Amino acid sequence: MQVDTMRKIDRWAGIPLTIALTFWLKAVDFFKRKSREQDADLSRTLFIELSEMGSAVIVDPAMRKIHDEGGSELYFVIFKDNVKSLSILNTVPNQNIFLMRSDNFINLSIDIVRFIFWCRKNEITTTIDLELFSRFTALLGGVSGATSRVGFATLHDEGCYRGDLLTHPVRFNSHIHIAENFFALVNTALGFNNSEYPTHPVLPEELTLEKLSYSEHDHKPVRTKISRMYPGFDDHRIVLINPNASELLPQRRWLAENFAEVIQTILENYKDILVVITGAPNEHAEAEKLRELVEHSRCVNSAGIFAFDELLPLYDLSTLMLTNDSGPGHFSSVTKLKVYVLFGPETPALYGSLGNAENFYLGLPCSPCVSAHNHRKTSCTDRPCITGITPSMVLERISKSLNQIQLNTIEP
After folding, report:
1. Backbone dihedral region for residue 326 (phi beyond 0: left; psi -120 to 50: alpha; all else: beta)
2. pLDDT at 201 over 90
3. 153 three-class SS
4. End-to-end alpha-carbon separation of the chain, Å?
5. Among the CATH numbers 1.50.10.10, 3.40.50.2000, 3.30.750.24, 3.30.200.20, which is that of 3-206?
6. Which candidate, 64, 59, 343, 325, places its Cα nearest to that of 181?
7. 156: number of CA atoms within 13 Å, CB side?
8. Which pLDDT tens digit goes with each residue over 173-189?
9. 378 and 370 Cβ atoms separated by less than 8 Å
């Protein structure tokens, strides 16, 4: 389904449904004499995050905390198209992941019914809703059968109404990183916060993703595919370019002409560099247009070439990546790769990568113009926040990194 269609459904169907479910759950609690203030049973904890692949990576340290300290068996519900992000660290067992289809309304409706039965079968005890004020995910938590439901609340702030379905509401703080907000949810579930305001501190060392390492055996299929695209590949340093961004917010995309200018300058100044344009299979055509703009033998289009499980070995093998604010900036955070992320309508203060990353962000008075409170929808078409980042600004910083990073030595 189109993003705007999902927004309309979430509003026009979500509001009356959340009101109805709120009254139903309150009536059930009243007759069963259940108190919403009881401690959460964390034995089988379900995380709800449907649409953001990056968030499925960012939440990993918080999930590991509730698993280790709360003794929780972890479950996850996510859109089918985004599930690969959970395979990066494999914190949640595959059999504990529910895949929801979003291609059309009929499949979505069927999967909601399947989800209800799946939750009952697995006896979900607690839900932790990672989405920012989505009525749909609030409803999923409400129908899950879980006795404890943790999620973000607006309290006295203005925000999207989504009923009173949470047993453990946590005030969302748009002034801190989303990873800290995720920890606030988990700390509330663990009983460390005694009110809607998450006063329990989040330590810097907690905001650390597990780092993965790869051997030459892992690198070999990646090298083989690169050699097919560029037969002269030998000891080149690899610079990755990700010009794509989610359809959820296309305003995040930097101009293709800017990417082309950066690539051309890098290739002209560094004879030992191979530029690899990355992307999903459905992004191949756009990536090819960028490659044609560059028109250089040491620039290749790999969109759709690498399987998802080959991306991390590719990142591990590479020297540097330049990317729009999108999934790869977060996926690569479990490797040592140096990453530069282009931010426009969103802010790195909230969504910056937890890896070895630097951000380009102009911080205009209008920025960020999208947030949880407007369902990440903006009417701005000029996009000065992203178009105002010039190729020269990017090249200045990237060149410093390339000059500092020693040439990789690759065994023949």
Report:
1. beta
2. yes
3. strand
4. 48
5. 3.40.50.2000
6. 59
7. 1
8. 989 999 999 999 999 99
9. yes
